[in-house]
Amino acid sequence: MAFHNWVTVLVGGFLCGCVYGTVLIWGNISVYVIAYLRHEANSDLTLYDGVMVNSLTLSLFMFSEPMGGKMILLINPLLTEALGAFLLVGGLFCSAFVKNLSELCITYGVMLGTGLGLMYCYPLKCAIEWNTERKGLVGGVISSGLGIGGCVWGQLTTAFLNPNNYPTGSRGEELPESVYKKVPSLFLLLSAIHATVLLIAFFFFVRKPPFRVSRESANFSFSHTAKRLEFWVLWVVFICLSISGTFTSAMFREMGQGLQDSKLSLVGSLALLFDSVFQPLFGVLIDKTSSQVSLVLIQFGMFFFVLTYWFVTQVSFVLFGIWTVAIMALYGGVIPTMINLAADAFGVRNSSVGFAMLESCEGVGALVQIPVSLVLVDLVGILGVYCILAVLVLLSILTFFIFRHKLAKRKLEEEESLY
Questions:
Q1: How far apart are CA 266 and CA 158, in angstroms?
Q2: Do 70 and 353 contact (CB within 8 A), yes or no?
Q3: How many Cα atoms sit within 13 Å of 337 on the Cβ side?
Q4: Could you read off the pLDDT of 87-141 as tens digits, one per residue?
Q5: What distance in Å separates the CA atoms of residue 207 and residue 96, rounded to the nearest whole number?
Q6: Which of 1, 191, 233, 292 is disulfide-compatible with 92, CB 3.0–4.6 A?
Q7: Are 13 and 145 contacting, i.e. CB atoms less than 8 angstroms apart?
Q8: What's the alpha-carbon Rg for the chain, to the nearest Å?
């Protein structure tokens, strides 16, 4: 293994990860987009209606990942990446011309989400194969690009749309027309920037040796994997943690109603920044200890911060910011942890595709946001919702500890005969 080879591929994967961060900016731009659509369609849209767009983007992102993983094995990895990039950039570009929520669901939800999912597996698989001894660090660096990209895009969008820091209100009703009228220009700007970054990233991958499909990878079976106990235990653990993270990412502005938009944007950007920083740190922890140690730290930390989130937001802005950042930082650690658990369960060469299958749970979690935001919040309030989220995190803890030893034994028995 040449040092410059895996570093070069890692840089390309990191740049792709930054592009994936687009999926995290809805919490920052939603109030502006909804205000724009409400004006264009002469409707009474709210932020809760906009959750449907974010849920579609996230769910299709996660559900199309396994398809992208299989396509890189059966067709061609760079062709798969190019198709994903076309859908991603095209979705952003077409979003500039939508006039109602349904059209935005197609462009920003379906096209953008599917494009992100198709592109996800190859950079991760390629980088891990170049450095199998540091799977945690490699997975953490690439996935950290998602948070860093979200931080950069979040600050860019706020600075572009609202440089004068007008208060947004809960529905954007206080925004002047000059602010939300810039939404189409924002989508055009994002599409141009993303196309440029992806071209640079692809340059790194094109210069690498041809993609080699091992016998182990070619024989990877979705149906066989879905019948294994390890898959479903990890899937349950993952979805219970991901629902808390995705809901907080999308709705932290609702928790901070009444605060200045600049403060909310700062909290969102810091949350994504710490999410990014903690991913490679958790990766190093995994390489030094184990993925199970990392998972336990994340689970107990998430349980504490989710359970107490609503209460501290009633005390001060500082505590609101700290708790939001802590939840997202721990949520970021879930990604490298699950990548390594997937490598343990399915094999190193199948780790990216196995992880993509596991990440389908985040798609389910994103879909759960729709009834939670539209129905459950009205029934039990934000406090009730976060109590339910704390119970889900507790369920992930119980599931892992009940099956942990059995999973370890099963891995040892089957490691040499998988697939």
A1: 10
A2: yes
A3: 27
A4: 999 999 999 999 888 899 999 999 999 999 888 888 877 777 777 777 778 778 8
A5: 34
A6: 191
A7: yes
A8: 21
